[in-house]
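User: For my dataset I need records formatted as: sequence, then structure tokens, nothing else. Please produce one.
Assistant:
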Amino acid sequence: MTSCNCLIISGPTASGKSRLALDFAERKDIAIINADSLQLYEGLPILSSQPSEAEKKIVPHFLYSHFKARENSSVMDWLKLVMARIEQVKSEKKLPVIVGGSGMYISKLVEGISEMPAIEEEVKKAARELYEKIGQEEFRQKFGEDKIIDKQRLIRAAEVFMQTGKPISTWQKEAKRTPFLEDFLHINLNPDRDKLYQNCNSRFVEMLDCGAIDEVKNLVAEDDYSITKTLGFHEIKNFLSGEITREKMIEIATQKTRNYAKRQLTWFRNQLPGKLVFTDSVTALNFLQK
């Protein structure tokens, strides 16, 4: 493995990222830092595929279940947290290993984030109130950010436009970027699609067997928080309410998971040109051991 101060392991859901990190931990003194936007939240550790307590005893894990279920966080929140953890891990003479499938998080870490203008509190309040008044579709049309579907990101786009008179996309293209991380090695897992889809299917059933339904049962009232974007949450919720059968729940949830994995594959294929791509975790581990 080429000497570096930080290792990044990325790839789609169910591609073997966590397994690769744990196997690597048997050979090198590392600490694992989360780069999955939903694993940041507590409440659904099984459904969001967070490390088990046994795995946490094998190697230190950071930024898993860091936020409460009712909290919302931004990419910048994560960037501040991850940089602090990287420095902490380095000070302990360990190698920081950042593991996750949230491509935007990893992209901002290594390519930088656009410097946005400060938003006045009254503008933030006005944006939130307008969203609640006119609804998501009209709100999106009004501020011209058709590709944004997440509520928090839509409101953020509106805040920037209301504050500056320019779309957030313009700021993102024109503003200066400074990478947060420069000395790193990036391993990207890009497995065979059929195998990946099989993993998506089997993993969801395993999650159900391990208690994912009980997790959702405890969070059914938290419908408007980031954590409920976790794949399978709404299908399990609909099963619990009697709207769909168990078989239908599995069918819909696994289809959504496969669709998400496909989008991740496409995104990583076209982004972050400095990455080293491997079709499986075994080949990647062999490379890291050189």
